[in-house]
Design goal:
Largest sheet of chain A: 7 strands, mixed
CATH superfamily of chain A: 2-enoyl-CoA Hydratase, Chain A, domain 1
Order of helices and strands of chain A: HHEEEHEHEHEHHHEHHH
Number of strands of chain B: 7
Helix content of chain B: 40-55%
Shape of chain B: globular
CATH topology of the largest domain in chain B: 2-enoyl-CoA Hydratase, Chain A, domain 1
Distance between the termini of chain B: 51 Å
Number of domains of chain B: 2
Helix content of chain A: 25-40%
CATH architecture of the largest domain in chain B: Alpha-Beta Complex
Radius of gyration of chain A: 19 Å
Structural class of chain B: alpha/beta
Oligomer: heterodimer
Number of helices of chain A: 11
Strand content of chain B: 15-25%
Number of strands of chain A: 7
Largest interface: A-B, 82 and 77 residues
Number of helices of chain B: 12
CATH class of chain A: Alpha Beta
Chain lengths: 289, 273
């Protein structure tokens, strides 16, 4: 692959990362079809934040939009990393679950509707702790219900990344899309350092962080289906293609024996160089042939 | 921190199944058994500490890579075996400290392992298996999402040793820039912050709180009570839809999760208009 930084096309590109969550969602739809639901003027705020002297937002940092993508019905749910680090609260979590459930009901009526999740989130919002965690469990369940009918695509463009319980939401999705500026993992570096010590993970080591969580690595180890540039047009095309592709014959999180055998084969006596796991992707290719 | 971490799981697994062993080839940290309960033969699963486990960050009752994939494999095995027959109940006995916090875990993609286990439990539920979670000790964060939180019915002991939360208290206080005392004070009014299982019950997510004389040393009466309640939960789960809608339709949820219900109503109204 050519280094995209050096090409004229890259300089002319429209950045996706620099867009707000609302504009990210909007740009994925066929021109003019994206319509926001339960938007800021509905003013459904978190009932729990003000009680803790934290200023709520009128959309709770979650944007739900409906429209068509490539001529097909779709719903996009975008988390605003700028509000509470995109963390899942009662309202933002309920928005995602409800949107997935409505899409699922439409599919059951014969209206094929896909979902795209723009995941920029640190996971559960600790100010709403147990209701955030409960919301994540419901989100996972609703993704699994919907993906039987139509693809659920998770996209983590950056720069917040997708961590905590929401990494499971990405994990059960039909397709995962990332940029090199995105990160994906269950426990962030700081949490690991705090729980298991700096010898286990030095959270100040940026290159270590990117070598493990970064979109390039997740793609190279076969845990991501498409690696895209920070280019809105390319991202739109990728999402459209994946929706057209439909539900995969088997989802990644259903391939238990494959991934379990890979874990069994790893040498547990030492830390691994992330590059060692690139062989997973090559094996994926072979199995698909 | 609960000094009994990981002990209750094994005790209750043994009390309900008459054994406490792993299936051949499985890590010793995952107990699996098929045992009778009521008219059914159910599959019981539990994650327990294994000080000799392969991965150093998953030896104290955390759910790590091996635990998550083993749970996923054993649940999927039951789904597959019951494809053409009565769907056996799947009972998750929950006493998990957390997910495993390690570099190996993240490098190998523990998020996918956890997703695979949650997927298996949810898929079992959608296939018609009654999935019951018995929260008898800790049920923290990613550990709980991986093992138990996809159940149709959640039952917990009404006991101080039960801890259901997104994060252990000290860490949660630190990250939200509060003292533990401030967090405790806030939790008196902000119910989802509370570490008390009775407050958790107010959120409407639980099917039932169970009262036993001693969660760490159950007598015959305690075991019989739990069996009775599990059978009732299985019957109840079989009667209703396989999704998690009961968690938002319950009487307590109508009060505590008003905002969630408002979101659902508003989105449904605006979906086609």
């Amino acid at each position: 692959m050519k280094d995209p930084i050096l090409t004229r096309e890259y300089l002319k590109r429209r950045s996706f990362i620099e867009l707000s969550a609302r504009d990210r969602a909007k740009c994925l739809f066929d021109s003019g079809t994206g319509r926001e639901l339960a938007g800021p003027f509905d003013r459904i705020e978190s009932p729990w934040l003000a009680m803790q002297d934290v200023t709520p937002e009128a959309d709770d940092g979650c944007i739900v939009m409906r429209g068509t993508i490539g001529g097909q019905q779709a719903v996009v749910i975008a988390f605003a990393g700028a509000f509470q680090g995109g963390a899942i609260g009662e309202v933002s979590g309920a928005k995602l679950t409800a949107a997935l459930d409505l899409a699922c009901a439409d599919n059951e009526k014969g209206i094929r509707t896909s979902a795209v999740l723009l995941l920029e989130t640190g996971g559960v919002r600790l100010q709403e702790a147990n209701l955030g965690l409960a919301a994540v469990a419901e989100i996972i369940s609703s993704i699994i219900a919907l993906r039987r009918h139509a693809p659920v695509i998770s996209l983590t463009a950056g720069t917040v990344g997708c961590f905590g319980g929401m990494s499971l939401a990405a994990g059960v999705s039909s397709y995962v899309v990332m940029t090199r500026q995105g990160r994906l993992g269950l426990n962030g570096p700081e949490v690991i350092e705090e729980e298991s010590g700096v010898e286990e993970f030095d959270a100040s080591d940026r290159s270590l962080i990117w070598s493990i969580f970064g979109g390039q690595q997740r793609y190279d180890q076969g845990l991501v289906d498409a690696l895209v540039d920070d280019d809105a047009d390319q991202i739109v095309k990728t999402v459209r293609d994946l929706i057209a592709q439909g539900v995969p014959p088997v989802h990644r999180s259903e391939q238990v024996d494959l991934y379990r055998s890979r874990i069994t084969a790893l040498d547990n006596s030492r830390q691994w160089n992330p590059e060692e796991l690139h062989s997973w992707k090559n094996q994926n290719k072979k199995e698909n042939q | 921190m609960n000094k009994f971490t990981g002990i209750r799981g094994r005790i209750w697994f043994k009390a309900l199944t008459g054994q406490a062993s792993s299936m051949p080839g499985d890590p010793h940290s995952v107990l699996t058994a098929d045992a009778p309960i009521g008219e059914d033969k159910a599959r019981f699963l539990c994650v327990v500490p294994d000080p000799d486990g392969r991965f150093p960050c998953a030896r104290r009752g955390e759910v790590g890579l091996e635990e998550a994939y083993t749970l996923a494999a054993r649940v999927r095995e039951a789904i597959h075996a019951d494809k053409e027959s009565t769907k056996r109940p799947i009972i998750a006995i929950v006493d998990v400290k957390s997910q495993a916090y390690g570099r190996r875990e993240e490098t190998a993609g523990i998020h996918l392992a956890a997703a695979a286990a949650a997927d298996a439990y949810a898929s079992a539920r959608f296939a018609g298996h009654p999935v019951i979670a018995l929260i008898f000790g800790q049920a923290i964060s990613g550990g709980f999402l991986t093992h138990g939180y996809q159940a149709n019915r959640l039952l917990a002991f009404d006991d101080d040793g039960v801890l259901i939360h997104a994060m252990h208290k000290e860490a949660a206080a630190r990250i939200t820039r509060r003292t533990v005392a401030q967090l405790d004070k806030l939790a008196e009014t902000v119910t989802p912050l509370s570490y008390n299982v009775r407050d958790y019950a107010k959120l409407g997510l639980l099917y039932k709180l169970l009262h036993v004389s001693d969660p760490e040393d159950p007598n015959a009466e305690d075991v019989s009570l739990v069996r009775h309640e599990v059978i009732a939960a299985i019957q109840d789960a079989r009667k209703t839809s396989p999704d998690l809608i009961n968690r938002i339709e319950s009487e307590a949820a109508r009060v505590a999760r008003k905002a969630s219900r408002l979101v659902r109503a508003r989105l449904a109204e605006q979906w086609n208009h």
